[in-house]
Structure formats: C-alpha cells, structure tokens
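User: Thanks for the earlier help. One more: Pyrimidine-nucleoside phosphorylase. Can you show the sequence and predicted structure together?

Assistant: Of course, both are below.
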Amino acid sequence: MRMVDVIDKKRNGGELSDDEIKFFVDGVVSGEIPDYQTSALLMSIYFKDMNDHERSQLTLEMMKSGDRIDLSGVPGIKVDKHSTGGVGDKVSLPLAAMVAATGIPVPMISGRGLGHTGGTLDKLEAIPGYRVEISQQDFIDQVRREKLAIIGATGNIAPADKKIYALRDVTDTVDSIPLIASSIMSKKIASGTDALVIDVKTGAGAFMKTLPESQALAEALVEIGKRVGMQCMAVISDMNQPLGRKVGNTLEIEETLDTLKGRGPQDLLELVLTLGSYMVVLGEKAGNEDEARAMLERTIEDGSALDRFRAMVVAQGGDGRVVDDYGLMPHAKYRIELPAKRSGYVSQMLADEVGVASMKLGGGREKADDRLDYGVGIELNKKVGDQVREGESLLTICSDREDVEDIKELLYGCIEIGEKVEPYPMVYKIIK
C-alpha cells in the first residue's frame, strides 16, 4: 500500500477502507509516513470529509495506537464528561465532585488551556501541591477509593492523536469535524470510561461559532460513541459570553468552591446540574433527570460534594485547606475596575476577547510552553442583560502590573451597552 494512493483516493472524495485508515495511523506513529504526506491527507479530509464509518475507524485506530486504561476493577459504571472548551468554563470541577458524591466513579483525564480557552489542569495547579501527573495505577486506585480523580493524560494514551494534532495546528486543519471528533473520542475511549457526556460549546468564545456547526460536531461525537459501544450524549451550551463570574486560574477555583458551598453563579450551577443529571442517569443512580438533579442538589446541601473535592485535592498532594482559605492560592497584586462609559444595558460581552484579555495578563498561554501567572484574571460584575450606570464597574481586572491600558482597550472593544436584551439561553439542544 502506498500513502500517495490513500491521499489520492480521499482527495477525490473516495471512502477510505479500514486497512487504509490503519495503514495511515500506524505509519504516523512509527514515523514511516513523512509529515508532508500526513499533512496532505489531513487537508484532503478537511475538504472532502469522512462518513460515519470512516470517522469511527479513525477513532478506533488512534485509540489502539497506545495504551488503554483498565478500570474494570473499579465497581460501578464509570462516567466522564468532556467540554470542547471556553472562557470561564470551570464546569468539570464542581460537576465531577457532585457526581462522585452520588456514588458514581468519575475518572477524568483533562487538558491544558491554549489561547483564549482555559484548561482544567491549569486551574487545579493554582492549588499548592496539586499533582496533575500521577501513575496509571495511582489513578485507578484513587478512582476506586475516592470515586474521583482529575489528571493529565497518563502513560501512552493515543500517541497518534498527539502527532496528528501537532500537524493540524500548523496546517490550519484544526476545525475539521472528523478530525476533532476522532481526536476527542480516541482519548476518551482509551481512558476506560463506560459513559460520556459531552458539553459542546457554541458562540463567540467557542471553537464552533454557530449552532449548526456545533450541532454537526455534537452529532459526530455521539455517533462515534454509539458505534464503539460507549453510552454517549451531548449538550450544546452557550459560550457567547464567559461562563460564571470569574475568568482565571485561582479565580475559577474560588468560584468552583463557592458553587460547592451553594453560593456560586446561577448560570454555572444550571449547566452543572444539567450535565450532571445526565451523568447520574447514565451511571444508573437515578431513573430520570429530575430525580438526578435533586440528588445533585443534595450533595451541595449536605456538604458531600465539597468533601469529595477536598478528598481529591489531598489525594493528589494538594493543600486541602484551600477549601476554606482561598488566600493560600496565588492572587494578583492589583484590582483595577473597568467603569461603564454610559448608562444602559449590557447587550454584548464577547467571551473570546475576555479570554484573550486574561491570557495577556498572564493567565493563559499563547504558546504551549508559556508560564502561567495563576493569580491574574477578570471578574465580571455585569453580564449580558444586566443594567449598568455610567461609572459603575463592568469588570474587575486582576493584574500583577499596574498599567493595564491595553487590557482596558481590549475589554471596552468587546462590550456593548445599549437597549435591554434577553440573556443568552444556557442550553440550546440535547443530542442523544
């Protein structure tokens, strides 16, 4: 088999056979297929797409390219959640603790942020001592013991994806549905989970900007899950404005803990309860979403979710005292207000630009090897639909530098004040 023939076939709109897909993935991992030919096939897939069978086979071959975690020794149905990424999206943190508190094992392998989107691992590393890298056996043992672990990719999970993604990033083929879907699902299948709820974001701060794009991605992910025997469903949620009231690593841990204490922002809590109710049903701890929601609400009321979060932090080497003392985490030197220039209603607050502002303060990465300033970020005092008076603070800029005129200019450019508008819906569609 020749790689040039595989490229030619897909370039002309043909369906790749299972053997051709295996040949491609094996060649990427071994290094026998040069980058320029891999890039050529990725571009062909970008323009010619893949059908459902091709997508599933690509996912399976990428999964089989490395290790697969065996969680069969952990009792119960293991349920995970994945998000396609956004700004202020700390959902995984309170969600995992609440679901684990119902008795469902939650083995979560998460990622880091890049660009305007935040990463779950970066947020957790704002907690002194927290280790996101633990051995595969320690991960399994912790899920069995504590019902919860949130770590970075362990061992040799889907090495084909790592090589392919690096080329997608530099060849402008990132936003291809078959390539996105196979990348996400190969890692989730390899992580050993039984069921998966996917939070597909849509809007200004999301990877997919429009609802039709987001729906197409959600349907592709769910279809792959079904074809490989995984229980899988997706929620399409809003990312036109940041989620919650805080953007930044320490700030989002604070908001996570506030949520687990019953005083978090309503939009964050609503999305957590929506996603969590599906996870609890998939985990067979409740017969329907209403019953599951009530169970999750009780984990906040009785403190069991907060206890699960603290237990996870301590198990992974973190300082459990942060649950009660936020001052143990890094914080910015300056808190600078952004006053409204006129009175009216906030009619727009573009999530991606708020994320870029946090990144430029040092809270995110422009390049993969950038160092983070965990204490910086943005606090949202107003959100879309809120009334504001001239001079009233729209946002608080948490910064380690006093001169933030560039950040103010960026933020003023992404916020509009005008007539009253309805807030964005939190959830647009459920895909099963």
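User: Great, one quick takeaway?

Assistant: Residues 211-227 form the longest helix (17 residues).
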